[in-house]
Amino acid sequence: MPKTLTHRPPGPKPHFPIGNFPLAHANPLATFEQWTHEFGDIFYYRAGWLPVYFLNHPDFVEEVLVNQYQNFGKDRVVRNTRWIFGDGLLTNEGQPWLRQRRIIQPAFHRQHISGYADTMTAYGTEFMQAWNDGDTRDIHQDMMRLTLKVVAKLLFDLEVDEESEKIAHSLNTLIGQGAGGRMIFPPFLRYLPVPAMKQVRRAARQLDTIAYRIIGERRANGHMNGDLLSLLMQARDEDGSGMTDQQLRDEAVTFLLAGHETTALSLSWALYLVSMHAEAEQKLHEELRQVLGGRVPNFSDMPRLRYSERIIKEAIRLYPPGWAVARTALRNCEVGGYQLRRGDNVVISQWCMHRDARFFVDPLKFDPDRWSPERAQSVPKYAYFPFGAGPRGCVGQSFATMEAILLLATISQQFRFSVVPDHPVVPMPSVTLRPKHGIRMVLHRR
C-alpha cells in the first residue's frame, strides 16, 4: 500500500503575501492549463488565504465526488452565495440537502420532463418570429432570454414579459458580480455602500419579492397546474412533510439560475461551433431534414436526433457551462497519496480535463462524432463530467439536455449563423463560462 505523503505537492511559486490568485489573472483558463502541463495531475497553490489542491485526472473526480463525497462540502464560492440562493440544492449540505434531493428528484423523472418538450419548442418557434434574414444579433443574449422564458413558464407558469425581464435583469446582475477574484470574497462585502453592491442587493430583493409573491398566491388559491412549483409544493418526504415557503423560494431561485443559464450557454456555444464547421452544419441539417421534414420537433423525436445530441455533448465538452468544481475538506482525508487537512480546498476543472489529450483524441477539435457509440467507449469514466458526478450530480441534467437538443433542432431548421468578422469570442470564467463579449452572429434564413 503506497505511503501517504504529509508534505504538499509541487505548484506555482507563491507571490508574497497573497500567494497565487489565478481568478484575478487576465486569462485564468490559460493559467490553469499552463499549471497542469507544468506540475501534473495534482499541484498546490494558495489563493490569498485559501490552501488549494488542484486535481486533474478522472481518478480524482471519482475519489472526491463519488467515493469520498461525504468528506467534502461545498466550497467558499458556493457558500458565499447562500445569502442569494439560500439553502437550495446547489448550496445545501448534509441531511437537509439529502431530504431536499429526495423530495425534488421525482419532479425530474422522465414522465414529468417529457411533458415539457412541447413548451420548449413552442417558445423557441415564437422567439424566432422576431428574427429576420440578415439580422446581426448577440446569440448569447438571445439564448439567455429564450431559456429564461422557458424556465419561467415551466417553473412558475409565468408568461408576463415584464416580470420575466425583471428576473433576467436580477440574475444577470448577480452572476455578473461573480467574475474574477470577487468569487471568493466574503458575503459581508455585499453591505459596502458602493454602486455595484447596491445593484446586487436590489437584484436579490427583487428575486425574493417575485418568488414569495408567486408562492403566496399559489398557496392562497390552491391552483396546481403541473408546473415545477406545483410539483414541489405537492411533494412529500418519507415522513409526510413538505417544503416550507423558504425552501420553495430557495429551490425556485436555484432553478431559475441553473435552469436557464447552463442551457443558454450550451446552446450559444453549440450554435457558435456549428457555424464555424461546415461539415458539422451539413450533417446537422441533413438529420433535421430526415427526422423532422420541416415540422417542429417533439419528445418522441429525441432518440432519432442523435447528431444533434452529439453536437450538444461536444459543445459542453469544449465550453462546459460549469467550468470547474470546488470542494472543501470537512475532515482530514487522503487524495492522490497526499494528506489533506480539514479546511483544505480542492478544485477539479472540466475545462482542463475535457481538453486533455490523454483522454480525448485531438482535444481542441470540434468533433461531434467522437460521441458515436463506438468512439465514446474510449473516453475514460469521469474524464467527461459537465454536470458533475456522484450523489451531488445535477438533478436537472435530463431536463437541460432535452431542452438544449430540442431548441438546437428547432432553431437550426430555420436559420444558419455566421460569426460577425473580427468579433472576439472569449470565454470568461465567472460562476459559469460566459462569452465575455457575447457572440455576435449574422442570421441566414434557411
Give the class from helix and strand content and strand pairing.
alpha+beta
CATH fold group = Cytochrome p450
Record field, number of beta strands: 12
Q: Outline, from the CA principal axes?
A: globular
Q: Rg to the nearest angstrom?
A: 22 Å
Q: How many distinct helices?
A: 17
CATH architecture tag = Orthogonal Bundle
Question: Proportion of β residues?
Answer: 5-15%
Q: Terminal Cα separation, in Å?
A: 62 Å
In which range does the helix fraction lie? 40-55%
Q: On the 0-100 scale, what is the average pLDDT? A: 90
Taking the sheet with the most strands, its summary is: 5 strands, mixed
The low-confidence parts are none
Provide the number of structural domains. Answer: 1
Question: Which H/E pattern describes the elements?
Answer: HEEHEHHHHHEHHHHHHHEEEEHHHEEEE
Question: What do these coordinates show?
Answer:
The structure is a single chain. The protein has helices spanning 28-39, 58-67, 76-79, 82-85, 94-104, 110-113, 117-127, 139-156, 161-176, 195-221, 228-234, 245-275, 278-291, 306-318, 350-353, 373-376, 397-414, and strands at 42-47, 50-55, 72-74, 136-138, 325-329, 333-335, 338-340, 345-348, 415-419, 427-429, 433-435, 440-445. The strands form four sheets. Strands 1-2-8-5-3 form a five-stranded mixed β-sheet, with helices on both faces. A three-stranded antiparallel β-sheet has the order 4-12-9. It is α+β, with helices and mostly antiparallel strands and 446 residues long. The chain is globular and about 60 Å long. It has one domain (22-445): Cytochrome p450 (Orthogonal Bundle), CATH 1.10.630.10. It is 47% helix and 11% strand. The chain starts with 27 loop residues before the first helix and ends with a strand.
